[in-house]
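Dear all,

This email documents one entry for the complex benchmark we are building for the journal club exercise. For each entry we list the sequence lines for every component of the assembly. Then comes the predicted three-dimensional structure of the complex as a token string, followed by one or two observations. Please use this as the template for your own entries, and keep the labels exactly as they appear.
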Amino acid sequence: MMSHKKFEDVPFAFFSITKEGKVKSANFQAELLMDEMSAFGIRKFGEFLLGKINGDNLVFKTPRGTYGIKVISSRKDYEFFVIALDEFNQPLGDIMDISSLQHEIKTPLTVIDGTAQIIAAKAKNEYIEKCAGIIQKESGRIKSILGNIHMLSEMTVKFDEIDVESFISELRDGIKIVYSRIDLRFRVLRNLRTIKADREKLFMALSNILKNACEAQGEGDIEVEVTIDPTIKYMDKEMEKACSMLRIVISDSGPGMEEQVQERLFTPFFTTKNKGTGLGLIIAKEAIDKHHGRIEVNSVKGKGTDFIVYIPSRMHPSSEKSG
Ligand SMILES: Nc1ncnc2c1ncn2[C@@H]1O[C@H](COP(=O)(O)OP(=O)(O)O)[C@@H](O)[C@H]1O
Ligand SMILES: [Mg+2]
């Protein structure tokens, strides 16, 4: 076995194995991982991984933790990374230098886009014009992914006083434009007039969760419940008091999710959709984390999914009482 020069420097385990499960190359991290696994009694790690890949079972558990397999080639041999899922959940900025990555990608992308524009303009045939249009559309998609990654790596929050009613109607309108067959049904705690949060970031987080619900369900009513959770409190250091948690539950009656999907929800780029980016939920989670909140999922296959968002209410004592 030789070590794989190309991936020697990445912080993840890289493997190349034959279709029979023989390890052909492994970087330093991969060798460490193999040693660890053999300590747990998994000696033929190549065959073990092959079984996972062939079974399309790309997340597996060991006594050390949960790992994900990211296949990058399956042409001749299987080439893939094995990544601890905790590492997946690390802030992206810790793993790679986002702004230089962005720059590296943006420059050629602009050239591609410009060239496609020229082809479209000069095309003498409809088919070529259509193809150029696809190139432009898809490069636009890459640009928007880059924008999302950038936002993820530099997300800051600024607290505003948000008028709940206008916030909700804006959410409702935003969804209605894109998903005309969905109705959002809000149930809001009666005396909740204002909340303190970063309006734009909270909006983005909730829209991302709502969009997924709409895409899962297709049509009909989606329930959104906004209340104060009576059971948990958040200690606000600035206000030097325990404040209550706002609880937002978004419930769809879509197809629900398999356990395997649920485990990977907050993994960057994980998507089950043809045109998905796999960034919606990680952006939502980042925004909610920045509010010192948390996000939970309850999903039953065949029944539907609840996303539950908690954020500290941070209401002024006066508005908490009078509201
Ligand atoms: N309400 C839901 N019902 C079923 N599956 C969901 C729901 N929300 C998220 N998912 C699953 O989580 C995946 C990741 O969601 P997300 O991060 O928003 O990326 P994207 O929507 O681009 O796929 C989706 O592809 C889908 O498989
Ligand atoms: Mg989404």
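Observations: The longest helix spans residues 126-153. The two ends are 69 Å apart (CA to CA).
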